[in-house]
Design the sequence.
């Protein structure tokens, strides 16, 4: 049987300025999004779901403004070029676009619907932490992507509200450029399963790992191919399947072809 978990309410977002008024200076805010004359920043702890929605709206028809966070140099002076690795303390938001991620489910009641391939879109926000002589660590502050399916309804991958996310790694590989190892342990929320209304909440059995090689971090902005698939940015390769469970049933992503690029 599929177990139903109580849906957590969507939290609001906070406006800091309106059209025609000066930008509001907020320390350590990495992004401000403007849409329909309303400016939103990402520092509101009550509004990370709303902030994600507002950023996506701003990407479609508004303005997203990067704000540099105060930061200390990464590592000791002279160890590396300032352009190769980001500064410790820097916060960066990127767009995540996953095209045709195949899903395997241990049970899909009440339907003969074939196993879906889901297209996710969302935002990831990271902070650079101290690493070593040739790398920095990356802590995910926020991550949420959403997809839609006629049988599963809205499908969401997001950071759990509790716990400490695992650290990723950004490595300077010299002439070979940079390599990011992205490590995440999100929860999976499925809106419905056939004729059974959810939401159904699953936890990651273990963190997943993806890697991507790039010339710069964050990767350049994404584009779109004629068939609607994402292009540009950096393509991240999943090392092993992502498995989620509610204690009785499992959901597995056998691939997670994520393209990630700067906003």
Sequence:
């Amino acid at each position: 049987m599929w177990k139903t978990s109580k849906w957590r309410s969507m939290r609001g977002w906070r406006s800091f300025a309106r059209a025609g008024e000066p930008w509001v200076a907020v320390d350590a805010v990495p992004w401000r999004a403007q849409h329909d004359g309303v400016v939103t920043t990402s520092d509101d702890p009550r509004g990370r779901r709303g902030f994600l929605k507002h950023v996506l709206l701003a990407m479609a028809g508004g303005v997203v403004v990067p704000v540099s966070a105060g930061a200390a140099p990464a590592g000791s002076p002279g160890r590396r070029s300032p352009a190769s690795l980001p500064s410790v303390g820097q916060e960066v938001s990127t767009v995540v676009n996953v095209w045709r991620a195949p899903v395997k489910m241990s049970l899909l009641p009440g339907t003969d619907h074939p196993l879906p391939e889901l297209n996710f879109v969302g935002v990831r926000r990271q902070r650079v932490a101290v690493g070593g002589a040739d790398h920095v660590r990356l802590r995910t502050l926020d991550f949420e992507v959403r997809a839609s399916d006629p049988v599963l309804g809205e499908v969401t991958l997001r950071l759990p509200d509790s716990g400490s996310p695992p650290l990723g790694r950004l490595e300077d590989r010299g002439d070979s450029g940079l390599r990011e190892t992205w490590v995440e342990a999100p929860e999976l929320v499925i809106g419905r399963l056939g004729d059974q209304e959810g939401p159904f909440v699953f936890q990651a059995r273990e963190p997943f790992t993806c890697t991507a090689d790039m010339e710069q971090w964050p990767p350049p902005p994404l584009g779109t191919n004629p068939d609607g698939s994402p292009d540009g940015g950096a393509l991240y390769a999943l090392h092993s399947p992502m498995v989620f469970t509610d204690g009785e049933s499992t959901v597995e992503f056998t691939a997670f072809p994520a393209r990630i690029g700067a906003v």
Notes: Helices lie at 48-61. Residues 48-61 form the longest helix (14 residues). The two ends are 41 Å apart (CA to CA).
